[in-house]
Amino acid sequence: MESRPSRPLFRLVTGSVKPAVAVFLALLCSAALLALPGDVAAQGLPACPDADEDGYAFCTAACEPPAVQCGDCNDSDPTIHPGVLDTCDCKDNDCNGIVDDSCDQDADGDGLVCGVDNCPLVPNANQLDVDDDGFGDACDNCPNVANPGQTDMDLDGWGDACDNCPATPNPTQSNQDLDGLGDACDICPTVPSASNLDSDGDGWGDACDNCPFVANANQADDDNDFVGNVCDNCPTVPNHLQADDDGDGIGNSCDNCRTVPNPGQEDCDANGVGNACDECFEPPPGFPNPCGCGIQRVTDVAIDFQSPAGKGSGLVTWQTNHEHDVAGFNVVTYDSGPRVQLNLLLIPCQQCSTGLDASYAQVIPKHKGGHSIYIELVHVGGAVDTWGPAARN
Q: Please, are residues 357 and 320 in contact by the beta-carbon 8 Å criterion?
């Protein structure tokens, strides 16, 4: 018996077959070959992929058929695979090699059919495509920005390439502050801030946060000075510039010692002036003295004729309590009636900047008895208090 020449398992005839059908038959051939046993099927090759996880793999001769079925013709779209209903969308949804089975190839009625029409479902006979991305302006979700993938992450009708909130639906693209960020995703929707930076992570952008570096989600501002309570150095007194001359953390507007640091703001007599800068005067007898204040006075005025200067000179000494506004002292005598100043220059104060007590000593020339020696306390404003006479030691 004569042997007959072997015939190929499949023969693809393309002369009179439509291109779409030819592609379908080619896919069937590949799938059949891969399904054959023995040396016909590929051995030791990677599994054919099912990238869109729709249960159908995109099979070729370069991969092993997986556990799922072959036959997917678009492995990036899970809605396209064998067995689905073919819809009129200019796609081969069921992977049978025919686009839009039994559908109108000109669904939008603009005289252009699938494969030619750049907006198959939206009439656009002029086929305008300003950004030249293959999608006509009439159906392009970014008509002025090329985006051939037409990706729209938030599904708001605006492509990611031109959406001012690509991850947050913002169909109106409203942008009150015109900073390029849509209101739907702008954490400062009324204050321009293209960076959308939020340093303290409280949900308020630095550009509109009344405490940009201290978290305060409620933005409480009791004094309405545009500085939030949690970072305001005068939270109940307006102090918009946050001036603090003495650097004690208490703003000038509410500091009871504006030029003397006193972060504790102690005020023992509750007179509104802090202890650190309050002149503490002794109250009249019988009145409360919460701060233990004493009157600024000169005490213990005395003269000693055993002066180290010798030659009959005398040494005048005195004490002060609570120096506050002292400019200095004079030693004077009224021995013969009129006032005579015994020191050439004003004797400077020692503790007038601290408010503490001090001790003084001044040598005077030879003097008869020392009983008419007095100390003048000269105040900063020019007033003079006279203390004495000196007691002889």
A: yes
